[in-house]
Design a protein that fits this description.
311 residues, alpha/beta, FAD/NAD(P)-binding domain, seven-stranded mixed beta sheet, 7 helices, 19 strands
Length: 311
């Protein structure tokens, strides 16, 4: 074995609530886990400001602070947390191998995948500027902060429709911006949106610029894609709901993926199509996408890895 090759009982690929929880449980089970944090250490929560819906934080906590506490807890029990990215895996035989961008090759008896999913963004410079200051990719995470305010959401699928109706229960007004003249959402969801009095549809339009100042978002400029006419909407929050992309590129052909490229797991478990490879968090969950559910599946993955290795 070369000096750049090492062995591990449990390799965790990715961080965030799922990865760190898996690390805590795996380390306490004496699996001596090695974790590579990935491109975005701490996952999507690191681009969130306040987190108020995670149990145990009655006064709320920022996403980055919470992920730092998760990391410290994982390290306290002996997890080797490493910056960097796993760039290649081979699950064709056990032990599995993984190559990282630090030049190391890890030969692992079990693998837990927690690479998450990334929200798709519009790509506007102003969207990036006000991220966490009024721009959000998760209505159920951040909608509460805009109670009684006016907000906008862009998208036209089921997720956008669900998030718009959720926001309508909290906010005074919800502008729903869609570049077509009809929604792509299911008929039931369309009916719900179109019959919610405080949702105003902005048809045939696309966001052009997020408006704001040092305090955060103050409005949204939208442009009609047919007439070219621009309109400024006064609002406090802007939600992007144009989909998520699971971070599974390196696992294509290694484990079974669904038609949206999320990792398939056996119902009620985190077991993938390869024995000894487990997946937890948003990389295998496009339904709930919450920190607390991700943490729960991280716990499941570690317990299942421990049982697999003990079998």
């Amino acid at each position: 074995m070369s000096e750049n090759t090492e062995t591990a009982r449990c390799l965790i690929i990715g961080s965030g609530p799922a990865g760190y929880t898996a690390a805590i449980y795996a380390a306490r089970a004496d699996l001596k886990p090695v974790m590579y944090q990935g491109m975005q250490p701490g996952g999507q929560l690191t681009i969130t400001t306040e987190v108020e819906n995670f149990p145990g934080y009655p006064k709320g906590i920022t996403g980055p602070e919470m992920m730092e506490e998760f990391k410290e807890q994982a390290e306290r029990f002996g997890t080797q947390v490493r910056g960097g990215v796993v760039t290649e895996v081979d699950f064709s035989k056990r032990p599995f191998t993984a190559k990282a961008d630090d030049g190391r090759t890890i030969v692992a008896e079990s693998v837990i995948i927690a690479t998450g999913a990334s929200a798709k963004w519009l790509g506007l410079e102003s969207e990036k500027k006000f991220m966490g200051m009024g721009v959000s990719g998760c209505a159920t995470c951040d909608g509460f902060f805009y109670r009684g305010q006016d907000v906008a959401i862009v998208g036209g699928g089921d997720t956008a429709a669900e998030e718009a109706t959720y926001l309508a229960k909290l906010c005074r007004k919800v502008y729903m911006v869609h570049r077509r003249s009809e929604l792509r959402a299911s008929k039931a969801m369309q009916h719900k949106v179109l019959n919610t009095p405080n949702i105003e549809m902005i048809w045939d339009s696309a966001p052009e610029e997020v408006l704001g100042d040092e305090s955060g978002v103050t409005g949204l400029r939208v442009r009609n894609v047919k007439t070219g006419e621009a309109r400024d909407l006064a609002l406090m929050g802007f939600f992007v709901a144009i989909g998520h992309k699971p971070n599974t590129d390196i696992f294509t052909g290694q484990v079974e993926l669904d038609d949206q490229a999320y990792i398939k797991t056996k119902p009620g478990t985190t077991q993938t199509s390869i024995d000894g490879v487990f997946a937890c968090g948003d990389v295998q969950d496009h339904h709930y996408r919450q920190a607390v559910t991700a943490a729960g599946t991280g716990c499941m993955a570690a317990i299942e890895a421990e049982r697999f290795l003990g079998a």
